[in-house]
Amino acid sequence: MNINQEEVKNKWRRLKGSSGFHNIVLFLEFVAVSALFWLILALNDSAQNNFNVRVQISNVPDTVTFISDIPEKIHVSVRDKGTNLWRSGILRHPTLSINFKEYGDKGMLRFTKNDLLSSLKSVFGSTAQITALSLDSLNLVYTTNKGKRVPVVIDAMIMPASGSIQEGDARSVPSNVLVYAEQEVLDTIHKVVTENIDLMDISETTQIDVNLRKIKGARILPSQVKVMVPIEPLVKKEALITITPTNVPKGESLLLFPSKVPVQYYVAMSRLGDNDDPSIELQVDYNQIDRSKSGRLHVEVIRYPDRFQNLSLKNDSVEYTIVKN
Questions:
Q1: Contact 47, 82 (CB under 8 A)
Q2: Residue with more model confidence, 133 or 150
Q3: Are 161 and 204 in contact (CB under 8 A)?
Q4: Using one digit for the tens of pLDDT, what is the confidence trace for 279-291?
Q5: Is 17 helix (H, G, I), strand (E, B) or coil?
Q6: What is the reported pTM?
Q7: Cα Rg for the chain, rounded, in angstroms?
Q8: How far apart are CA 283 and CA 260, in angstroms?
Q9: CB 322 within 8 A of CB 304
Q10: Beta-bridge partner residues of 212
Q11: DSSP-assigned beta bridge partners for residue 158
Q12: pLDDT value at position 91?
C-alpha cells in the first residue's frame, strides 16, 4: 500500500494545531511536574533500607594467611533521608575497608562493634543511623607460618554402570595442597580428605569439583580440588592357560588332557592388547584323585588380577594319567 507522505505531514500539522492536542500535552506536563515534586518530597523523608556491605581488608602482608573465614558481606540496616539512602545504594557500592596494619596483632585481627559502627558511619555518612548489623564484631585468626604441603585423600563410593569398569584409582588435581596453621596444629596434620563422593551407575570418565573437609584451627589452600574417576567400557578377552599340577608325589608325574584350557574374562578397553597369560594361574590337586569318581580332576583358578571381571573357564575339569618316573 502506498502512503502519501505529504498527506501524513498535513494530518500531523492539523493534529498539532488542534485544541485537544494542546490539552493532552498540558495534562502530561502537569503529571510529570507533580511526579517530580512527589519524588523530591519522598526522598527527603526519613526512611530505612537494608544494604549488603562488602568487607575488604587492606594492607595485608604477603606472609599473612587468614585461618578464619573472612565474611564477604555484612548485612546492615540504615535509617536516613531517602536521598542519602538512594545515593548510598544506587550511586555507589557500600564497602567496609579494614586496615590490617591498624587492627592486626599477634595472630588476631580484632574489629569491635564500635569499630564497625564508626567505619559504617564513614561509609553511609554522618547523618545515617545504623539500626542493625548481621554481626557484632570481627575476630579473625591469622598466621605467618609457611604452609605445609600434604597429600589429598579421596573419600569416594564409586559404582560403574553395567558393562563399564573403573580403570585405575580416582585422582585429584592438585594431588597435594597447602595447610596453614600454628605449628602445634601443623605437626598433627599429615593429609587432607575430600568430602564424601557418591558416583553411581557411571559409564564414562567423570570429573567433578569437590570441597576438602575443614580442619579446626587450620586453613587449606586450595579448599577445593578436581577429582577425576577413570571409567572405561569392558571388552571380552580369551586366553589359553597352562594348568599346573600340585601335590604330586616324588617319583610320579601327572599328565593332563588337555594341559591348557581357555579362560574368558572382561577387561578395560585400554587393556585389550596386554599379555595377561602370566597373571592367570590354574591348577589341579593330585590329592583330589582319591575323591574323584569321574576320572577327571577339577581345575581351580588360583590367581588373577582384580581388574579382570567375570572370569570363567570353558572347561572346569580335565582328564589325567599318572606316570611312574
A1: yes
A2: 150
A3: no
A4: 999 999 999 988 8
A5: coil
A6: 0.70
A7: 40
A8: 10
A9: no
A10: 194
A11: 199
A12: 45
- Residue 26 or 229, more confident: 229
Q: What share of residues in the chain are helix, strand, coil (percent, to 5)? A: 25, 45, 30
123 touches 74 (CB < 8 A): no
d(CA 143, CA 65): 6
Q: What is the pLDDT of residue 19?
A: 63
E strand or H helix that includes residue 6: helix 5-16
Cell of 215: 580442619
**CB distance 145 to 196 below 8 Å:** no
- Whether 122 and 160 have beta carbons less than 8 Å apart is answered as no
Would you state the pLDDT for residue 216? 93
pLDDT of residue 92: 62
Q: What is the pLDDT of residue 1?
A: 47
Distance CA 276, CA 320 (A): 26
Amino acid at 129: Q
Q: What is the residue whose three cell numbers read 590490617? A: 100
Alpha-carbon torsion (173, 72, 220, 195), positive or negative: negative
Closest CA to 219 of 139, 153, 140, 154: 140
Q: How far is CA 136 from the centre of its chain?
A: 32
SS (H, E, C) 41-97: HHHHCEEEEEEEEEEEEECCCCCCEECCCCCCEEEEEEEEEHHHHHHHHHHCCCEEE
Mean pLDDT for the chain overall: 85
Give which of 247, 250, 258, 313 is closest to 280, Cα–Cα: 313
Element (H, E) at 133: strand 129-133
What is the per-residue DSSP string for 234-276?
Answer: EEEEEEEEEEEEESPPTTEEEEEESSEEEEEEEEEGGGTTS--
**What pLDDT, on the 0 to 100 scale, is given for residue 105?**
92
213: which DSSP letter?
A: P
Q: Average pLDDT, stretch 210-225?
A: 95
Distances (CA, A) of 133 to 55, 71, 87, 91, 158: 13, 13, 20, 22, 45
Tell me what the mean pLDDT of segment 169-191 comes to.
94
